[in-house]
Design brief:
Radius of gyration of chain A: 13 Å
Helix content of chain A: under 10%
Structural class of chain B: mainly beta
Oligomer: heterodimer
Distance between the termini of chain B: 37 Å
Order of helices and strands of chain A: EEEEEEEEEEE
Shape of chain B: globular
Number of helices of chain A: 0
Number of strands of chain A: 11
Order of helices and strands of chain B: EEEEEEEEE
Number of helices of chain B: 0
Amino acid sequence: GAVVSQHPSWVICKSGTSVKIECRSLDFQATTMFWYRQFPKQSLMLMATSNEGSKATYEQGVEKDKFLINHASLTLSTLTVTSAHPEDSSFYICSAPGTGGTDTQYFGPGTRLTVL
Amino acid sequence: DAKTTQPPSMDCAEGRAANLPCNHSTISGNEYVYWYRQIHSQGPQYIIHGLKNNETNEMASLIITEDRKSSTLILPHATLRDTAVYYCIVRTIYKLSFGAGTTVTVRA
């Protein structure tokens, strides 16, 4: 199956700083990627759809100025949490649809963000 | 996308088959049934998907009722490593909407 990686796997930062999370499709190209957030003991919530070469589409209630998404190439999407606060502490996961005529989504391993 | 209903939790004995039910009574004709699982602190892992016919792969089997209003994921020989939250999702487009899933605990 297709492989999606994320970097870093975990990050701790101070309140007010910005954090960038990378999502890469390792063996396939992805014009679209998705970013999810998962709080402890909760399910995944879709935050935004990242589109290569164009603006991201954000889900209702997600602040686009706080969660900056850039999809500069066919294998890389980045999520930047700007001016992070403790309530932004969460597990951030990206996914990308596989190729070969399948709609199957492949997920990255996730990034654990802790804001102090 | 159609809403799904799954039991919140279930236990399974190691080496036995695990049958995970999912209700999707409002599914429409072009919506697929997808199953993913999430092991603690990892990203979700794709298991299997189907439209009408039953499907089988190296991980599991998917049984979809004839009216497509429910399905069952079968893990044929559960191992301790199958302990995870299992999500049943129906969808037509790329977006996946995750419900609460079923927490499956495989016991030795």
